[in-house]
Each structure stands twice: as structure tokens, then as C-alpha cells.
Amino acid sequence: MRSLADIVQSISISRENGLTAAQVQESRSRFGANELTPLPREPLWKKFLEKFDDPIIKILLAATLLSMVVDLFKFDTTYAGISLGLIVTTLVALFATKKTEWLPSGMFVLAVVILGIGLISGHPPIEGIAVMVAVMLATGVAFYSELKSDREFEVLNAQKDALQVKVQRDGVVQTIPLPEVVVGDLVILEMGDEVPADGRLIKATELMIDQSLMTGESEAVKKSVRPDDDTAEGPDQPACLYRGTQVVDGAGQMIVAEVGDRTMIGEIARRLSGDAEPEEGEGDETPATAESRVQQKLTISKAQTPLQEKLTALAELISKVGYIAAVAIFIALVGLGIFRGQIGLSVGFVDNLKAVLDAFVYMVIIIVVAVPEGLPMSVTVSLAMAMRKMTRANSLVRQLVACETIGSATVICSDKTGTLTQNKMVVDRIGVEGKVINRGGAGWPSIVPEKLGPETPNTPAEWIGLNAGANSTANLEEKDGKILTVGNSTEGSLLNWLRENGASYAKLRSDFPVTYQIHFSSDRKRMTTVVPYGSKMLVLVKGAPEVLLEQCKLAANADGSIQELNSDLRGVIQQQLRDAAGDAMRTLAFAHAELDATFPTDEESIHERRHELETRLVFDGFVAIRDPLRPDVKDAVDRCRQAGIEVKMITGDNIETARAIGRDIGLMDSPNAIALTSAEFNALTDDQVKEQLPNLRILARARPLDKFRMVRLLQEQSQVVAMTGDGTNDAPSLKKADVGLSMGIAGTEVAKEASKIVLLDDSFSTIVKAVQWGRSLYENIQRFIQFQLTINVSALLIAFLAPLIGALFGFSDVKPPFTVLQLLWINIIMDTFAAIALCSEPPREELMRAKPKRRDENIVSPSMQSNILITGAFYVVAMLTLLFGMAAGGWFAADPNWSAGQVDGRQASIFFSVYVLFQVWNQINCRSLTPASSGLWGLNQNPTLLAIQAIILAVQILIMSVPFLAAIFLNLKPGSEEAARATLSVVDWLVIFVATSSVLLFGEIVRRIRNSSAKPV
Fold first, then answer.
1. How much is the pTM?
2. Half-sphere exposure of 623 toward its Cβ, with a 13 Å CA cutoff?
3. Class of domain 374-390+770-1013
4. CB neighbours of 668 closer than 8 A, spacing ≥ 6?
5. 668 by DSSP, 3-state: which?
6. Structure letter (DSSP) for residue 97
7. Per-residue pLDDT tens for 633-680?
8. How far apart are CA 854 and CA 316, in angstroms?
9. How many beta carbons lie within 10 A of that of residue 16, not counting itself?
């Protein structure tokens, strides 16, 4: 890390005013921007080859290779021998060189080569061509889906760390994006901030830094200025700060020494990419641990969510059934071969082997269709899509699990300021000398900046003005013609009040520089600053009125004198505070004290005697700050109530203000609704609190520990808790909650880091939208499961029953109803297209009129099970009737030589197309999960579904209209008469289109019947 001397020598920086605009440009050109090189992506070719590493694909390729070689032995032993030699040589080479990871892709290349040999020999293996095309389709679609998902995550990763940094440039405090920080910048740090770059401290007030990202130690470390040691570096050095660490207490200023890849986090990221070696002296364990922490910070975790784990278990269960069914089909096909005389002692070895291999390949394809490997993958795709859409709706998802958990939330614990209100605070009322003055009314005080000094007696309003400017860490910034608050919004309203009166808070801070400061905390409920005041020191305190009134024994008068704060005056002030709180205003009190000349003036000595600072406080008055409610918050709270979600307001405001806000938004409508203060809450045992929780609506003057306890007790009652927070001290409760929601505007970086979702607009209504998106995600995955399992059930039964029924009823020439390529095309429709189509359904408003899903609820609901079985049975009956109608009665035959028991090319085309179009129509059916809804409702709201249906239909028509493609999909010889007859006409397609729509009509009728027979709830 550069020393301060090096930085000053490179750029003539000012420790008071920061860099100039010209110096910023010079620094950026010399030292670069504050951007980290993105973590390396896995090469696309490697990602694509990984798709061949699926066990089923490997078995399928091995069986196909053997089948093609056996085919060649029937026609040309020379070419067959060459092919066999190539296979053996390649396998030996791969195993000898221990390059077994290349085995799947090697088998595919071998299959392509042997395919070429077959074409040269004049005997192309049609089924081999079909399998190769199918494998390419399956791996290509899986590769594309993963690539699309990765791109979504990359976009979200870029948004995840969109940090705003407070810097001083040209003497003005301003906020800039993280990448714009340059070497030499004067960065202002406060509690809750994240350190934006590596740098050296030049000013610190009780500064505590969480360095766990770098060191792994969870305990915060105190940092202090060390002007005598400007060259030392490392997290253990008091004056060194590092990017990504967090300010958990105090404040400070630092000069940026390193940016971008030259920061410590940048060096660790480079090690992750393999571009940098570990530094000398580093052990093996520490860098690896640091690397994992850095990777976790820089990327969104893709660890499996509970829903994915649940679906993986479901997929494994279905897989077992699929494997058993596939083996049963294999046995049935071999038995059928024996029955027909195609397998046996009278048949040659090659023919026997070929017949068994054909049955084996068919078994593997059945497994491909039956095993829902796309189920967990489709959830990942759906989660990525949901994350992107939620971000557009102002909910930035930081952890995948939050997408699904927010939809199950049963309780939302919300802050008030900025979440339920607009966070547009204005000083609306001032209380001084026992009198209340409203904004715009007679006597509204004006501040004369020149009088705010030790030489002139100050009025109470002037004491408040001095306190508001000097005892504050907030700043005002002008952007696009608007005045914005940088820092705490309550302090911002006070600075705006000063600005209205022509007083400059910057001049006040220059005239009264901070000597010592104790920042506001929810435990102390006040902020204290010590500033020089002539020859003495002045203590300025602002905070909760009840706390300051308790501490003060004196009160300021208009003429500068001081009177006793007697019980009468105290009672008047308390009533005024209650009136303001009853009008839903936040109140803030101010006090001061002059320290005697013997009191120490250095920070360290003051810190040792800090308990003496507030012993002789003079009460100056109070302000009442109005923060209007968000116009949509009452409706949002009402929507939560309809959705079975309890809303609890946890606020630092006093109980009267909280009750007034609660009444305005409908929280206190119930006669049993309870509001408690922190003190009352903590006086109750856990069991007593649990008894009160169903009716507890408001917790006032809450501390962070109260939030944590609330979350814990609610979770012990099996509630799914969403908790909002904006402060550094909220981090434990945000982590503890099932879904921690931090504020994107008012929230500290520490709170954001602890949360799972960041509300980009800080609005309560956005939480409600996030709940709706979470519920929609769950429902969309249910739709996909319903669609996929319907195909699983029907395809397995048709594939198993068709040859068996054919054999039993004398249709000896009826072959398995689906070819290898057909089943794999159906699998692509089922696994990929359906996932995109059905998981693109927009959230329905009806979702917010249902109760939250239980954590242990089966994702395949009883209604879905009925839909799957009934629709699956419809498919099986319809398809078997069609198949044997064609075989026995010659339905749709085009071959003039057709004889009973056969299925010619055109009939096979019709059979395949009917089944595929059934799936197109059933996608609409699967939009409905309950008998009370229709798949047709809101169909035009999902253009993605309609587009995918059009794509499937267009591809199917293309396949069955081009003779070569039809031949490949039907296992016919390209160019043959039968292949030419297999194509379908426009009339054929119209008939199939209308006929297959019967599944949609069937689904609607079944839903009506089930709904009418359902018992009223």
C-alpha cells in the first residue's frame, strides 16, 4: 500500500478539501479506476463438453456406438473392423493417458466418425444419425439454458455491489459510484459504511472496523491515526483500511492509497483467477479461506435452495420409477422379439445382438424421458428469471433462497421511517421555552448565523441551530437542481431547516470543529459532540426527548439566561411532545452544557471522562419532524392482511407517534391490537411475549436486540419472518430472519451485506410485490412439474403398453410407438421449452388472496396429482386407440400395399405429431393448478408461452414436412417411397390441430366437474 508521503508526492492533495476535478482526472489516468477485474468464466467449450458428462448420455453414446458397429458387420466386415479398431484404440489411449474426462466427448466424436464410415460404405446407420442429432439437441439446449442462467447471474452480480461513496472534492462532500473513487480521494466514513478502497486514516473518532473479510476474525478492530508510521501495512495496522471491510462504529476520514486490482481484495480475486501467486510467507490455509470469503462477497451464491433440494428428492423418486419402467420395457421388448422370432437360436449372432442393442437403446431413451433431470435445472433458470424481474420491481435479490422464501412469509416486521413513510422529513414544529411554534406561524424562529458564537448570549432556537449543524454527520448535496441528504435523513431535515434560515452548516462545522463525538445508538438514544467554544469546551446533545428530559435539570431562556426545569415546565413540554406524536410526527430534543476551563481538550482524555459530559445539561427545546406516509402503504398493508400475512411495525419512535402511524395505515384496526414499548417488551418473559405475539402490532423505541428477540420468538412459533432494517446494528436480526430486507437508499452497507434482499426504493409496497413474485415463482414451478409429470406418466405407459398389447392381440408388426429421436425431441419440449414457457407466467393478483404455503407442504399438491393422472390417462387412451386403430383398421394409411398389423410412414407421422401437439395444448391446461381456475384465464399476459408454443408447432411442422427430416425422425431410409409418403399435408395439420385441442376441452370440463363437486370451505 502506498504511503501518504508517496501519494502527496504523486498528487498534491489537500487533507481538508480533497482532490480538485483536475487532480481526479490526473489520478485516474495514472493509477486507474476503482474496478476489479471480473472473476474468470469457465471457457464456453469446456462448459459445452461438460454436457456430455451426463451418465445417461454416456450410456446412450456407448450403446449407439456398439449398435452402429454391429450394423456395419451385417454389411461390410472391413469397415466394421476399422470402426471397432478405432473405438478400442481411442479408449485405450484415453485410459492410458488418464484423460477419462474426455471420454464422453470422445465417444461422440467416434460416433460421428463411424457415421461417416457408414455413409462411405453405402449403409448409413439411420438410428445412429437420429441419436447423434438427438444428443446434439439435448446437450445444445442444456448448454444454452445454463449459459442464459449464467448471464442473468452476471447482471445481478454487477448490481449487487453498486456502492455509493462519500468523498470530499473541491471542499464539497459528494457521493460518487464506487468505480469513480481514485487514488488520493478523501473518503468520509461513518458507521454502516463499507470501505471503498485501500487507504490510510487521517482522522478517526472511535472508529471500529469489521475486517472479517480479510482476517476471518468476527470481532471488530479499533482503528486510529498513526502519523509517525506512514509505511506499515496490513489489517493489523491501526491506520490501514482495506476495501470490502465495514465500519461498525464511529467515524473517520481516509486518503485512498490503492484502487481496483491493486487493493488487497483485488489481489485475492486475482489469485482466484490464477493471475497472481500467493505472497511470500502466506500459508496454505489463510489464503484459501480469504479467497472463499472474497468469492462469496463478489458473487451471488448458487448453492441449492430448499426448493431445489426438495425437487432433487422428487426427481430421484421419479427416476427410480423411471428406471424400473425402462427395465420392464426392455424385458418386454426382448420378450416380444423372442415371441416374433427376431431373437433366438435360429437367428444369427449379429442379428440377435442388434435386436438386443436396439431394445437397450430404447430403454436408455425411456430413462432419458422418465428421469426429470431438468427439474432442479429448471428451478435454477426460474430463480434467475425471477431475480431479474424482482430487480426490475425494485427488489434486488442477493441470495437465491430469498426468491422462494419471501413467498412463504407469514410475518413482515417493518421499520417505519422510509418504509411506511416517504422519508421526506421536514421540521414542522419547534418547542422552546414551553411554547410551540408551527411552521409558517407567527414567531417561527429565524437563525442568525453570526450570533451562533460564544460572545453573544444565544436564544434556545439558536442553541438548537448550532446543535443541528455541528452535532451531525449528515451533509447536503445538490444534484440535478435538487438538494439531497447524504447520511441520516432526520439530520438532513435539520440541515435543510438551517439552510432555509440562511445558516451554513459547513461554516458552523468550520467554526466549531469536532473534538470528540459519541455517535447515536439505539441503546443511548442520543448523539453527543464536544466542540471548542471560546476558551472552553461545549457539549451538544440531541436525541429522544424522554431521555434528555430525564437528564436535564435546567432550561434555556430567550434572553440567554438559564432557569430550573421544574415539574410544571417539564409537564408542559411532555404534553407538547405527546401532541406532536399524536399528529404522527417524530420528535427530537436538544441540550447543551459548557465544560469548565479545567476539563481536558484532547480526544483521549475526554474519552476517559466521557461519563461527565452530560451531567450539567441545559434543555434547549425540541423539534417535531413530519414525514408523510407513502400513499400506497395502507393498501399494501391491507393486501398483506388478505394474503394471510401479519404486519408488525418496529420503530425507534416513541409510542404515541407509532400508534398514530399505526392507526393511519390500518395496523390498529383490530380491537385486540397491542402496541408495546421496548421497556414493556423486555419486561415480559419469552412465554408471555409468545402469548401476545398474535395481537402485537407495534413495538416502539425498539432496540436491535428487540428485533432479534422478536424474530427468534416468531420463528419458534413456526412463522416465516421477513424483517426490514437499515442500520448497522440491524445486521444480526437481518441475518436471523428468514428473509432480511435492507434499505437501498437509507440503508447502510453493513445492513445490505447482512440482508438477502435490498429494497431499492425502501418502500413497504415493494416488499408486498416481492411476496407476490415469490409466490408466483413457487406456482410457476408447480405448473412445470405438472406438465412434466404428465408427459412422464403418459410416455412411459404408452411405450410399455403399445408393444405388449400388440403382442397380446396379434399385431406382430407393431413396433415401439416412439423412435429414439422422437422421445428426445419430446424430452426437449418437456425439460426446456416448458420450463421457460410456464415459468414466465406473471404474478396473479389472486395469489395475494391465499394463505402462505407451509414449509413442509408437498409441492405436488393433491389437485396437481389428480390433474396429472386424469390427463395422463386421457393421453394413454387416446394414443393407444389411435395406434391400434391405424394398425387394425388402416386409419390414415397412405401405403397402397398396407396390410393389417402394419403402421406405415404417414400413420407414424400422424401418431408422433398428435402426441407433440397434445403437449402444446396441455401447456395451457397446466397454467391451472386448481379446479376453480381455468388455463385460458389471462393467456394473453404470457407472450413467452404463446411464442414457445408457436416455435414447437413450427418445428414439428418442419420435421414432418421435409422428407429427409421425417425419415430421420421415423427411422426410415431417406429417399425411400415410404419416407416420401410420411410427410403431412396442410389438411392433415388442420385436422391434427383441431383434434388435439380436445385435451384442452377435456381439461376444462374435468375442472368444472371437480369444482362443482368440491365441498364448500
1. 0.78
2. 29
3. mainly alpha
4. 659, 662, 675, 697, 698
5. coil
6. T
7. 999 999 999 999 999 999 989 999 999 999 999 999 999 999 999 999
8. 23
9. 10
- Furthest CA-CA distance within the chain: 123
The answer to whether 447 and 427 have CB atoms below 8 angstroms apart is no
Kind and range of the H or E run holding 502: none
C-alpha cell at 724: 426490514
Q: Which residues contact 990 (CB under 8 A, 6 or more apart)?
A: none
Supply 497's cell numbers. Answer: 431547516
Nearest to 113 by CA among 37, 41, 61: 61
The answer to whether 908 touches 982, Cβ cutoff 8 Å, is yes
Closest CA to 219 of 209, 229, 227: 209
**For residue 698, what is the enclosing H or E element?**
strand 696-700
* Fold agreement between 374-390+770-1013 and 444-626: no
Instruction: Decide if domain 444-626 falls under CATH 1.10.3720.10.
Output: no
Beta-bridged to residue 515, according to DSSP, are: none
Assign 877 to helix, strand or coil. helix
Q: What is the spatial distance between Cα 472 and Cα 461, in angstroms, rounded to a whole number?
A: 17
Q: What is the dihedral of CA 662, 666, 669, 675, to 10 degrees?
A: -20
Q: Which of 164, 200, 207, 206 is nearest to 185 (CA)?
A: 200
* 8 Å CB contact between 314 and 860: yes
Residue 415 known to be catalytic: yes
Domain residue ranges in the chain: 4-34+181-298, 44-159, 374-390+770-1013, 444-626
Query: Are the beta carbons of 256 and 183 closer than 8 angstroms?
Result: yes
Q: Strands 674-677, 696-700: parallel, antiparallel or unpaired by DSSP?
A: parallel
Instruction: Decide: 1010 and 931 in contact? Cβ < 8 Å.
Output: yes
| The three three-digit cell numbers of residue 519, written as one number | 455517535
Cα distance between residue 430 and residue 423, in whole Å: 19
SS3 116: helix
Q: Of 185, 210, 415, 627, which residue is the catalytic one?
A: 415
- Type of residue at 150: D
In CATH terms, 4-34+181-298 corresponds, of 3.10.20.740, 1.10.357.140, 3.10.310.70, 2.70.150.10, to 2.70.150.10
* pLDDT (tens digit per residue) in 976-1011: 888 888 999 999 999 999 999 999 999 999 999 988
List average pLDDT for each run of 10 residues in the chain, which is 1017 residues long: 85 86 93 83 78 74 79 79 87 84 84 86 75 74 71 63 85 90 94 92 90 82 83 89 90 93 86 54 48 67 66 81 86 84 82 82 75 66 77 84 88 92 92 89 72 72 92 89 87 93 87 90 90 90 95 91 93 96 94 91 88 94 95 95 96 92 93 94 96 96 92 94 89 92 86 89 93 92 91 87 77 71 82 83 90 85 93 96 87 78 85 96 94 90 94 95 90 85 92 96 93 64
Residue indicated by cell numbers 417411397:
977
Q: Which of 441, 426, 433, 435 is nearest to 498 (CA)?
A: 426
> How, if at all, do strands 426-432 and 435-438 pair?
antiparallel
**How many other β-carbons are positioned within 10 Å of the β-carbon of residue 583?**
14
